[in-house]
Design goal:
Low-confidence stretches: none
Largest sheet: 5 strands, parallel
Strand content: 5-15%
CATH architecture: 3-Layer(aba) Sandwich
Radius of gyration: 15 Å
Strand order of the largest sheet: 3-2-1-4-5
Shape: globular
Distance between the termini: 14 Å
Order of helices and strands: EHHEHHEHHEHE
Structural class: alpha/beta
Helix content: 55-70%
CATH topology: Rossmann fold
Number of helices: 7
Length: 146
């Protein structure tokens, strides 16, 4: 495997206890131990910060814990791929193919497709709609075993 693209929800699950945190942690650790690059679109950082802020605002974690989590996530060294016009065009097409009004989730699909990589998410509706649109390289974390 030459690399994988992960959704922000997998990274957040490393820092905040979620129902799929154990699976996400095991999967990411396995990729890292195998030396498999983990790629994310430039949008990923904003989504991570937003999720951490939401957790702090909801008092699930403190602001200091959110800052620490952000530092830890950056230290994992995921390859943040800057947006290009090609990726934006692909993202627009994916948003249309999966019936989304916004193009946040489709940025991950565009990155994975462009780089011919698997995409992993804990978002079942996203995985199902992408698979229905022909993306056999999309994986829902809840369906997979290590």
């Amino acid at each position: 495997m030459s690399g994988v693209v992960i959704d922000a929800n997998l990274a957040i699950a490393l820092m905040i206890p979620l129902p799929y945190s154990e699976s996400a942690t095991a999967r990411i650790q396995a990729w890292q131990q195998a030396g498999i690059p983990i790629l994310v679109p430039g949008l990923w950082g904003y989504e991570v910060v937003s999720a951490l802020r939401k957790a702090a605002a909801g008092e699930w974690i403190t602001l200091q814990e959110a800052e620490n989590a952000l530092n830890e996530l950056w230290a994992l060294g995921f390859e943040q791929v800057p947006a290009t016009l090609e990726l934006h065009r692909s993202s627009l097409k994916w948003a249309d193919r999966i019936g989304q009004k916004v193009a946040y989730d489709s940025a991950y699909l565009a990155l994975a497709e462009t780089h011919e990589l698997e995409f992993w998410t804990a978002d079942r509706p996203l995985a199902e709609s992408a698979k229905a649109a022909g993306a056999k390289w999309v994986h829902y974390l809840g369906d997979e075993e290590l």
